[in-house]
Amino acid sequence: MTHYKLTLAYDGTNFAGYQIQPHQRTVQGVLQKALGKMAKVDSIHIDGSGRTDSGVHALGQVVSFDFPIEIPEQAMLRAMNSLMPLDIEILKAEFAPEDFHARYSAKGKRYMYRVARGRFTDPFNRLYTGHWPYPLDLAKVQIALDDVVGTHDFTSFAASGGVIVNKVRTIYEATVRDDPEHNEVVFEFYGNGFLYNMVRILVATLLEIGSGRRDVHDFLRLYEVKDRQQARGTAPASGLYLKEVYY
Amino acid sequence: MTHYKLTLAYDGTNFAGYQIQPHQRTVQGVLQKALGKMAKVDSIHIDGSGRTDSGVHALGQVVSFDFPIEIPEQAMLRAMNSLMPLDIEILKAEFAPEDFHARYSAKGKRYMYRVARGRFTDPFNRLYTGHWPYPLDLAKVQIALDDVVGTHDFTSFAASGGVIVNKVRTIYEATVRDDPEHNEVVFEFYGNGFLYNMVRILVATLLEIGSGRRDVHDFLRLYEVKDRQQARGTAPASGLYLKEVYY
């Protein structure tokens, strides 16, 4: 057995998310089947760094697996890309130490969220951005982002349905930048872990603050109340990208 | 009756082309139905500047039509966008002189073609570019583009099936530029008219010249032979954009 680490990008639009599910097109399902084809078995189990939902994209998802044949890294890269559909690209294939696990070895993750600012939806970006046509004061968003950085109980920012009890996470970095060329604002969040839908709920709350619909320091209140109903909005999946996983 | 001119952008991916067809989702069909809805009739006939094929995009398609009610330009813009699916955006709505016809009044058109240069297909650009991973000498392409500019018989560059007999067209401008930020090369063609699939065949031939698979002056031979079989390739629809129509 040879242990591998793959880094990949995908357009999440036409996947029912990362995680394998019966009768659905999933990223994990497509990868496991392709590896199975190479090894002439049904399927090779892979471990991903974490799930992404339907419509959520990845610029640097990471998976790890044991493969029965030792194939050089470059040959693995070429072979896998030749078996991939056009909405997945394998960026890198590497040998990994036996104890490397895409999920358990991860020390942190970076997500990006793109928000289109046009008056109407741009047809070419509808699948790759969220959309917020309202006036937005980035200075207010910046003040709120300073409240996001640090170690907090993010209960108010986790969609229900998760089984995770401890909802304390540390955000090392939270930024927003204006991208006037594309008429977008782009958020990035780098932290030790993220709860279900957390980035999308953070972004929705930040946009409401930037448009004056919430107090700039509403995050401090939301950490206290630990109530998902108070944060309300969830920005659409289309704007969200898993950008990098850190090991 | 009030006569209108609309300028619109669309992502051609999920349309069976511009032109209306029974039981198919087309740009013309969607527009005619929306205008019909506003006027409380079944459908309002529109004239487009020309067809685009399935998968071909538009950044500035133009249509004209008579509308039974006089609606201010900005109200027409807002109303139409509120009725559009997310893959069409109305960019401009204007009153037009009665004799304005999107097709017959057009004096020229500009097309753009985006070619992705990466080793593998980028998942996020697969619907919005063609792909040419081979070495490409842009100096050779530039020499060939100088042969494209001017008045020529483009019989070798017209897909069969058209009913047009006169295949002489004038290209005023034909350019290529490197876009290293996106790892693309971008072609533009501005001319008085274009035959069926002409831009896509031009691009395929230019890429073959740039990769040394054809003589740099092969265009001169192809104008002479007037034989579609000699030009062979057709670049994919996904890279093609109707950029502007000139009146």
Automatic annotation (TrEMBL), chains A, B:
Chain sites annotated for binding substrate: 111
Keywords: Isomerase, tRNA processing
Residues annotated as catalytic: 53 (nucleophile)
Enzyme Commission (EC) number: 5.4.99.12
GO biological process: tRNA pseudouridine synthesis
Keyword Repeat: no
Catalytic activity: uridine(38/39/40) in tRNA = pseudouridine(38/39/40) in tRNA
Molecular function terms from GO: RNA binding; tRNA pseudouridine(38-40) synthase activity
Top EC category: isomerase
SUPFAM superfamilies, sorted: Pseudouridine synthase
Start and end residues of each Pseudouridine synthase I TruA alpha/beta domain: 9-105, 147-247
Subunit structure: Homodimer.
Role according to the record: Formation of pseudouridine at positions 38, 39 and 40 in the anticodon stem and loop of transfer RNAs.
Sequence similarity: Belongs to the tRNA pseudouridine synthase TruA family.
Protein name: tRNA pseudouridine synthase A
Species the sequence originates in: Lacticaseibacillus manihotivorans DSM 13343 = JCM 12514
Gene expressing this chain: truA
